[in-house]
Amino acid sequence: MAVNGREKMEILDTGANRVIEVRQATRYGDYAMARLMRGTRDKVFRLERIAFCLAVVPLVLVALLLAGFGSGANGADLTRLRISIPGLGSSSYPLIMAQKKGYFRAEGYDVELIPMAGGLAVKTLMAGEVNLTSAGTVVATLQGAKMRLVMGFIRQLPYDLMAAPEIKRVEDLRAKKVAVADRGSVTFFVARSILQAHGLEPDKDVTILNMGRPDVRYQALMMGNVQAVVANFDGTGLLEPKGFHSVAKAGKYGKGFAGSLSVMQDQLEKRPDEVIKFLRATLKGTRAYLQLREEAIKITSEWTRITPANAAKVHELMSAGSLAADGLLDRETMEAVILDAKDVTGVKRSVKIDEVFDFRLMQRVNEELQGWRP
Predict the structure, then answer these.
(1) The CATH number of 160-252 is which of 3.40.1280.10, 2.30.30.140, 3.40.190.10, 3.40.50.720?
(2) pTM for the model
């Protein structure tokens, strides 16, 4: 029997051809010749298949042996792990470092990082299409989604409001367009807080456009489709050499964070050991980024397609305290984020921190990795 699906497809093809041949043969009174031709063809197919197997199977066996049968460090088969991420920026650095350094593989996972718009990233987690997401989930949780944020990446708001050359100050954005990821994203909250602090109301004085991934937003600014965009460390490094400039830094307008890991509540409750593996690999990625400077710059510049010089600047900013080496967030930041999300969603009831955040497993991983170095 052939390998999965192969012979079935050939049988279907042969069956279809047989019907055609029988009909043709009946029409022309040549049924016997049709059977003879079909039998000869089938024998040729079988001989070709045998020869193919004799030639290919040894090569496949050798490849599997060399690859360790696709196994992790402990020899077990790798499990596919799909993570949705809101773009290729600094808020995904812990994950890309963990992937490149083999920390997920050591936990038994073949990880796939899938860039997509933040709102879509959250929906794919809710639908079970991915195992976890690094997109913001606070708004979705307040709206009833059964998920928990279990790890934080960047403790500060690593964003600038980057504007076109003709925009000299925030007030110049009146009647102009600003690009954000989507309404539930950190970028929206950043844009809103900056605009309101300068007397401008989103959607009234300034048009806010939901444009998804960072690269799409930056392209919109460069093409003149919008006059400003909320950009992370990487985006600022990409846009400044092209003549765009910062008119406001998010950190001056409020508290918040960027980048995180969230899982469904059911997974957290029923399979906590699985979540611990995710967290352990990712925290190692965070610490590898902080401690292996040159390697981190090389990996992240290739990942985000910024120059090594800009990647070095980002590393300097992240290493100055922005990137959470323990994956935890302080209470004041969590409360501020919940308050913003309540304002946007219109939720009036009191929302407890543990309805949104759950760092119990993250704390366990920190205890386990005390003294660990990449």
Answers:
(1) 3.40.190.10
(2) 0.75
